UniProtKB/TrEMBL annotation:
PANTHER family, alphabetized: PERMEASE COMPONENT OF TUNGSTATE ABC TRANSPORTER (PTHR43632)
Localization: Cell membrane
Residues forming coiled coils: none
Designated name of the protein: ABC transporter permease
Organism: Ahrensia kielensis
Family annotation (InterPro entries): ABC_perm_TupB-like, MetI-like, MetI-like_sf
Superkingdom field: Bacteria
PROSITE patterns: ABC_TM1 (PS50928)
Major localisation: membrane
Topology class, membrane: Multi-pass membrane protein
Amino acid sequence: MNDMTDSLWTALTHIVTFNPDLVEIVLLSLRVSLSATLLSCLIGLIIGATIAVSRFRGRSLVIVLMNSLMGLPPVVVGLFVYLNLSRSGPFGWLGFLYTPTAMIIAQTILITPIVAALSRQILEDIYEEYREQFESLSLTKSMRTGAILWDGRYSLITVALAGFGRSTAEVGAVIIVGGNIEHLTRVMTTAIALETSKGNLQMAMALGLVLLCISLSINILVSSLRLTATRLGYA
């Protein structure tokens, strides 16, 4: 019990004193996760909005596929990205393997289906509500897409936050394509796994506490945005 207390105290000391190694790992984690989330939203929101306002043969199959891809196994995505970015792969000449860029690519592939599927459902509900009005105004598909994206902006922010939360907790894919290299590709989740295996529980606990705080902050933001949207009549 004393060892656990001492480890927790040391972990808190690392956080309060801004331990350089801890800060470096946290900042890299945030950079990778935020970049992947931004790219996922740029791609996923367009896909979700396009499908929400479109009616075509095979649409139901596309929606089922999108929903299925939300459960992509991270290690499979990591392997896929690794094979493509390795020296013998088609994109090996880029030299992205074992860099933060490779980690961003892997996380983007994981998060995009989540953003696309969740946003599609939200935007489709909005579209059905305004569909007759859009038709009466003879709005083009792009104008309809822009209108529902704006109307659902609060709910879509919660989708983005959900994607960001998913990316910060990712370990399987990033450790395959990033390699967990010190001062280069070591993020919070991979560092926690490494430090625990080394018996350095103080640093592992410090990183775990920071990760928990980030997760808690995301949940608070999501709840606040939903409450704000409800009060303003957007949800």
